[in-house]
Automatic annotation (TrEMBL):
InterPro entries: ATPase_NBD, FtsA/MreB, PilM, SHS2_FtsA. Residues 15-182 form the SHS2 domain. This is Competence protein A. NCBIfam families: pilM. Coiled coil: none annotated. Gene3D superfamilies: 3.30.1490.300, 3.30.420.40. SUPFAM superfamilies: Actin-like ATPase domain. It comes from Duganella phyllosphaerae. GO terms for biological process: cell division.
Amino acid sequence: MNAFQALFGPRNPPLIGIDISTSCVRLVELAQGAKDELRLERYAAEALPRGAVVDGAIENMDQVVETLRRVCKKSGTRARLVALGMPPASVITKKIILAAGLSEEQLEMQVESEASQYIPFALDEVSLDFDIIGPANSPEDVEVMLAASRREKIEDRVAIAEASGLKATVMDIESYAARAALDRVTALMPEAGAGRVVALFQVGAQVTHISVMLDGATVYEREQPFGGNSLTHDIVRAYGMAFEEAEARKKTGDLPDNYVPELLTPFLESAVMEVTRAIQFFYTSTPYTRIDRLFLAGGCALLPGLLDLIASRTRIACAVAAPFKGMQLGPTVRESQLRLDGPAYLVACGLALRRFG
């Protein structure tokens, strides 16, 4: 049962959050600052070679290990305990109702019995964990969240940490980590309050992950096959650059004059179309008819014009997710650079928050 490496388990400081995505390895280390505020101690990222991670699966262990070692050295961290994330598509989650008052051993037996109904694999092939969410509709019952993933997928990430001189103590779900980081930010907003519907669009390299929350609880989740790599490939084809150079120039905007009208603008239109379609699908497939605020995260969040275009087309209040908002900054963190980097670190920040429970 505990082979899931404490998906919902203990948080042991000091702890760093490591986000292994399709294109990059990102690290965040948080500490307790003055007046009980959080401090961003350090953060860093290193690009992954193409093909090292595909659809969340580790395809080249050596390349990922080498990249993780580089990012740890680059950051200067001395922490060795890490929180890692699993892609949502690799994890099966299910809310179940169980009798209240069961012992830990009885709960484990009941969860395993229930899990066999929802997991399309033999239980000895999966890592399984659970957490009691709270009372159910009946006072005699409790609502329990169970989570399961193929054991080898968990073990791959644990092995990468160990080969890099680290120890994985927490394994979370990337979408849960992102929401934890966003919850902290939305709680700081003046309009924070009950009954607000918040949507999060994380535009990654290949996939856009959509989460919609009501009072912090997820009411809708979906992935769409759209990401920033399509723009990078357009740059490669148009200007004959290597992929890595195209990716770097996409971020700096150091591209020929026709880049904006011929490549960037069509990409922005496609991105906005994906967002508006996702919102309409949310409205038609759920009882909800409004979104109060939309947050944009991921490497494409700061593409010039994207946020304004989404706000104009959806008529929803939009903002770029800033996971380190309200935190004190460590001596090595440059605030000006952080504003540019922050939206891509939502998952890594959420993982690092597990240090504080």
